[in-house]
Amino acid sequence: MASGSVSITIKLFSTLREALGESKFELAISDISKASAQVDVAAIKVLLSQRGAAWKEAMNQPNLVHALNHKVVFTDAVVSEGDELAFFPPMTGG
Amino acid sequence: MSVAIQSEAIDVAAEYAQLVGGRPGAAVATFTGYVRDHSDQHAVTELELEHYPEMAHKVLESLGQSAAERFGLSNWRIVHRFGRLAVSETIVWVGAVADHRGEAISACELMMDTLKTDAPFWKREQGPAGEQWVASRDTDMARRARWRSGEAQ
Predict the structure, then answer these.
(1) Between B50, B54, B58, which is nearest A14 by CB?
(2) Which chain A residues are Cβ-neighbours of B109 within 8 angstroms?
(3) pLDDT, tens only, B53-111
(4) Which domains does chain B have, with CATH numbers?
(5) ipTM over 0.85
(6) How far apart are CA B4 and CA B34, in angstroms?
(7) Residue in chain B nearest A64 by alpha carbon
(8) A69 closest CA partner among A44, A90, A48, A86
(9) Contacts A86 to B, Cβ<8 Å
(10) Is A13's CB within 8 Å of B119's CB?
């Protein structure tokens, strides 16, 4: 974006929702989004890790799953304006 | 060829009748999963299923379609519960209609193995020992991996 700002929706489920006390919120990323730089999932994780010890621990879980717009992605997936990024532990349905 | 994600009990007889009546085939296979009264370590009295609605629907649709393409199904259906479930209640039901038994059975197995690891549902067990989230199992990941490697047919 021309302004260098990206706004996305963050969703948390299961153990992450409980540990962090939030299930959904909007995140404006203006401080790490430079004119030519792309924001990826790894950058969002770093940004969220700065929210405190619980966030840092949650974002650094080795088995953390990230889904961008309802699809599981690796941390190099690029995030765009209006995207929905969800974090959760491995799935246990069925 | 559809998905349902619901809090109500699964009417297995009605689901079966609709699956077979809609598009008859020579072979029908179904799988029904129930809440167990125990886990690996302790007794379970109730299960709570959290889910990510929008993603769950997309994932289940996608894996049903994948199974249909791979095994030439004439019909399929996936029903998954969410919310609080008592012991012995149905959690999940899948059904597949094909020309031959091998394809119908394999399709159900593929749908279940993929669903376990790919569909965004999380179980939390409640029992005398308290509440706890169910951890993912290596055996589930291994069963899922078989379909990627082509080991399973």
Answers:
(1) B50
(2) none
(3) 999 999 999 999 999 999 999 999 999 999 999 999 999 999 999 999 999 999 999 99
(4) 2-149 (3.90.1170.40)
(5) yes
(6) 17
(7) B136
(8) A86
(9) 52, 55, 120
(10) no
User: What are the structure tokens assigned to A38, written together?
Assistant: 């792309």
Which of 26-55 (A) contact B at CB < 8 A? none
What is the C-alpha separation between A4 and B119, in angstroms, rounded?
Answer: 34
Asked if the Cβ–Cβ distance from A13 to B33 is below 8 Å, we say: no
Q: Which of A17, A63, A91 sits opposite B120 (nearest CB)?
A: A91
Each residue's pLDDT tens digit, A2-30: 456 789 999 999 999 999 999 999 999 87
Which domains does chain A show, CATH number per domain?
A: 6-88 (3.10.20.30)
pTM assigned to the model: 0.91
Q: Which two tokens stand for residue B149?
A: 């490697």
Question: Which among A1, A4, A26, A23 is positioned nearest to A12, based on CA atoms?
Answer: A23
Q: Give which of B149, B148, B114, B117 is closest to B134, Cα–Cα.
A: B117
Distance from the Cα of B24 to chain A's closest Cα (Å) equals 26
